[in-house]
Amino acid sequence: MNEEKTYECAYCHRKWNSPEERMKCEQKCYAERVAEQERQKKEQQEALLRIKEEARKVQKIKKIKEIQQEYDKFIADVKQFNGEYKEPVKIDGKYYDFSNDTLFSSGILDPFEEWLNGRF
Fold first, then answer.
1. What is the mean predicted confidence (pLDDT) over 5-28?
2. Which tens digit of pLDDT belongs to each residue from 34-82?
3. What is the pTM of this model?
């Protein structure tokens, strides 16, 4: 009857000769388990953020393509109007004429408008 009693860690199932040693092991194993759970939770949050950011980038690219298509259609419509009526299109106080591709005719640079607005 000279059996020595052993105490087993509830986490890693190692055998110990005293309850104090087992308790120290359980504390260490519990701290490791909590740290691992926090690390996994942080990784999951980072992965979710990466997925959301990627989805946002895809949506942004899609929106840019839509805007570019609408702009191309606008340019085509203005060119068609210029070809039919031989005059520029006035939209929001600016004239658009793409029959000749100059900065003045496209409305990008209008020195007279700039002078009237007091910039020069």
1. 94
2. 999 999 999 999 999 999 999 999 999 999 999 999 988 988 888 888 8
3. 0.51
SS (H, E, C) 12-68: CCCEECCHHHHHHHHHHHHHHHHHHHHHHHHHHHHHHHHHHHHHHHHHHHHHHHHHH
Quickly tell me which residue has 């996994």 as its tokens: 40
CA distance linking residue 102 with residue 72, whole number of Å = 18
Distance (Å, whole) CA 65 – CA 72: 10
If you search the block for the tokens 């055998």, which residue do you land on? 15
According to DSSP, residue 108 is labeled S
State the number of CA atoms in the 13 A half-sphere of 23 facing the CB.
3
Task: Give me the long-range contacts of 77-81 (CB less than 8 A, separation at least 24).
Answer: none
